[in-house]
Amino acid sequence: MNQMTNVKLEQFPYSEAAKKALARKPQLFIDGQWVDSTGGAAIEVIDPSSGKVVSRFVDATNDDVDRAVAAARRAFDDGRWSDLPPIARETMLHKLADLLGAHADELAELEAIDNGKPKGMAAAIDIPGCIGMMHYMAGWATKLGTEASEPMAMPRGTFHTYVRREPIGVAAQIVPWNFPLLMAVLKIAPALAAGCTVILKPAEQTSLTALRLADLIAESGIPAGVVNIITGNGHTAGDRLVRHPDVDKVAFTGSTEIGKLINKTATDSLKRVTLELGGKSPVIVLPDVDPRVAGPGTAQAIFFNSGQVCVAGSRLYAHKSVFDQVLENFVEATNFWQPRASLDPAGHMGPLVSDEQFNRVMGYIEDGKKAGASVAVGGDSPASEGGYYVNPTVLVDVKPDMRVVREEIFGPVVVAQRFDDLDEVARQANDTRFGLAAGIWTKDLSAMHKLAAKLKAGTIWGNCHGVIDPALPFGGYKESGLGREQGREGVEAYTELKSVIIQL
Ligand code: ADP
Known about the structure:
Layout: H1 16-22, E1 28-30, E2 33-35, E3 42-47, E4 52-58, H2 62-77, H3 86-102, H4 104-115, H5 119-140, E5 147-148, E6 159-167, E7 170-174, H6 180-194, E8 197-201, H7 208-220, E9 227-229, H8 234-243, E10 249-253, H9 256-267, E11 272-276, E12 282-285, H10 291-303, E13 315-319, H11 323-333, H12 355-370, E14 374-377, E15 393-396, H13 403-406, E16 413-419, H14 422-430, E17 437-441, H15 445-454, E18 459-462, E19 481-482, H16 487-492, E20 495-503
Parallel strand pairs: 7-8, 7-10, 8-9, 10-11, 12-13, 12-17, 13-16, 15-16, 17-18
Antiparallel strand pairs: 1-2, 3-4, 5-6, 6-20, 11-19, 14-15
The chain binds adenosine-5'-diphosphate.
């Protein structure tokens, strides 16, 4: 029996390292220390593969949030981070990236236990993604210099002017449960490179890897108080963070609904805000593509991470001349995506993250059927003892006004439709309040570039889907977000510009 969490961990097929992480005392990481909460409430960690409770963590109180913000404020204001030589900051961030690499196997397992994603996928995608992001952003610490700029209205040599780029200050960063560690690293890396200090709040469904990240941050040499990690519910701890007067910037990834709420609250005090929100991304297959390539390719676009991806290709549009063959190959590809327990090495798709998410996705499927959609494959849950498994699902015979076509389902459900010409499919693809990403499958260069220009989305993929690179800006048009992460823009989003004008 584990004294701290009252969970019998012996019954689970976890490694010793994972059991140790699960058995840790529920605490918060504030000012470089592990501290107890001022309240007694805890949140349960549920393994979505079994539906069983495997650990507990703190539900932070208002006082806890205030302590974390105060620590970040002090750490910013006294310059212990932002005033360091940039190379010192860069070196510590590279060290943190290396530490993530040294713990890759444990982190992948914890992610699988917490989120339900296959451990193999976490090991192949999430953890290397974290390491790459951290190394990439580390480099910006030494490259975000002051810019020279000449005034236009003064005689030459009479004024000295320059533009300083300075860190914004204290950043509150709130992340979701679909890529828990990757989202956490994606948030802290640019903030730290820019010289900001941080309070990070992981999602209440998936906090395990963020807590391990705190251990690695302490080990990396990053000074106390620069990163504070607090766990807790969104409507309480998250909301307190967003409202806090000592927070200068809020960065959020999550649902459009909560993003809008956060934007309203944060902009009331003119905090800087970056939002990465939902999507309903179209994937367009043109007639020249081999359906044996397009079928599995577009299936991966939706079923990777059980469809719990903001850029999931959830609306498939195939040209009417190839629709039937693409659909046939797509349906065949669902064999590869049969859901299995996250620690089953044969699995490519796991369960959904939670009971709530399971009910939501099954509700959408039922709603689609009631509205007249037909199920080409899936539409149900496999027989299992516990766990939140949904079979890969393809809905056809859908109409543009159905909820399954318009709303983000965030599960392994795609709606497949036919189209006739490029203008028509561009109009259909853009007929959404979202604008995060879109996919185009064709070898016809002219059609590819024409469509890429017409589609209103922050990322366009050609003959692939979901490829993310730290050097390329990522973000949404329309209700999919505000601002861009990654690339130069991603780190500049943690800075303010200051013009200095001196008469000589
Ligand atoms: P999902 O709907 O996918 O669960 P959410 O947008 O609800 O995603 O949650 C994403 C993150 O936002 C989580 O860390 C959650 O705790 C946090 N959150 C939820 N509601 C609020 C809120 N009102 N204020 C601040 N953060 C919130």
